[in-house]
Amino acid sequence: MKVLVDTPIWSYALRSQDKKYQPEIDALTSLIRDQKAIIIGPIRQEILSGYSDMRKYRIIKDKLSYFENTPILDADYELAAEFSNKCRKKGIQGSHIDFLICAIANRIDIPIFTTDYDFKHYQKVIPIKLYTV
Length: 133
Fold this sequence. Notes:
By secondary structure, the chain is mainly alpha-helical. It is 56% helix and 5% strand. Helix 1 crosses helix 2 (22-33) and helix 5 packs across helix 6 (96-108).
């Protein structure tokens, strides 16, 4: 089973020295080793946007280059808008990128690996699966 890895998980692995994130880092390492971790372009952009030091940016860009972007289809954008509308109708707000992540994961029927609690709220309204450590 492939897993769509969200920005916070990549950030823990690439930046954090905090041991409280070790379970997530270990899980990501295992997913990478088993070739089950996938990424989409907007997540890659979010990760790389966090580096103003160009040397560090190039290092992270090089590391991420080993992961092919999962294609985003026009239908994913439409489903993301639908998910956003459904959630908003229930009083749940979210970012456009979050709903795009949900739409892609839904289309290819894989879980999302994130620590962003908003996804637990989305899951109450839209059909997504979350990966747990």
